Amino acid sequence: MSAGMQQVILWVVLFAIFYFLLIRPNQKRQKQRNAMLAALKKGDRVVTIGGLHGTIDLINDENNTIVINAGGHKLTFEKMAVQSVIGESVQKSQ
């Protein structure tokens, strides 16, 4: 086997290891996050990237913003600022 062929095989093996250890898991996490953001609905209890806990009051799909009621204050965030959903829809009695 020539030295050039060994180098090609080495690069292919390194790329395969890189793909299965880094790229593929990251794509899977990104797909899960996008599904979570797409499933957001009014009343969901969420935590933002900054650590703010609140309940979604309004979702505006035109510019991807949400309004969160946190301790009586309404704050507007980008959808991408939501880190996780900590509870399903909370029904408010009106």
From TrEMBL:
UniProt keyword Nucleotide-binding present: no
Keyword annotations of the record: Cell membrane, Membrane, Protein transport, Translocation, Transmembrane, Transmembrane helix, Transport
SMART domains, per database record: YajC
Location(s), subcellular: Cell membrane
Membrane spanning stretches: 6-23
Domain of life: Bacteria
Protein family membership: Belongs to the YajC family.
NCBIfam families per record: yajC (TIGR00739)
Name assigned to this protein: Protein translocase subunit yajC
